Amino acid sequence: MDATPPWLTQEQQAAWDGFIRMQEKLIGRLARKVQADSRMSAADYIVLAKLTEAGGRMRFMDLTKLVEWEKSRMSHQVGRMVKRGLVAKEECPDDGRGAFVVATPAGYQAIEDAAPLHVEHVRRLFIDALTEDELATIARISARVLDHLEKQPD
């Protein structure tokens, strides 16, 4: 018989619940703003943002890992974006099974149009709510949790 897990204390549960609620509300609001402002989904935005930040061309699996998605989700997303002309797929010459995802001129234009509005919303909804010290604390906490996650089995 398995032992009972160590349940969260009231303070731990409040911290976790608050974090999840804040994250879901913030991401949901930003996703709706991106859609309304640019007619791109939040998934379109994240793929184009990461792709263009990396120079506009990435191996499919590297992009998949970067955004922490399943391979099938990325495949469907890239397929939709190819149909709309935002990205193209190129075969990898040194790996017959691999592929590159490449931002097209239309993809570059879409992210260039959407990014200033997105940053404006991030500032209004998140940055402006916090002091510089609080932002620094969130940055340290985020880095610490991310570092911890890298050490944990998936």
Automatic annotation (TrEMBL):
| InterPro entries for the chain | HTH_MarR-typ, MarR/SlyA-like, WH-like_DNA-bd_sf, WH_DNA-bd_sf
In this chain the HTH marR-type domain maps to: 1-147
Q: What is this protein called?
A: MarR family transcriptional regulator
Short name of one Pfam family: MarR_2
Name the source's superkingdom: Bacteria
Which SUPFAM superfamilies does this entry report, sorted A to Z?
Answer: Winged helix' DNA-binding domain
Instruction: Please report the organism this UniProt entry assigns to the protein.
Output: Streptomyces tunisiensis
Lineage per the UniProt record: Bacteria, Bacillati, Actinomycetota, Actinomycetes, Kitasatosporales
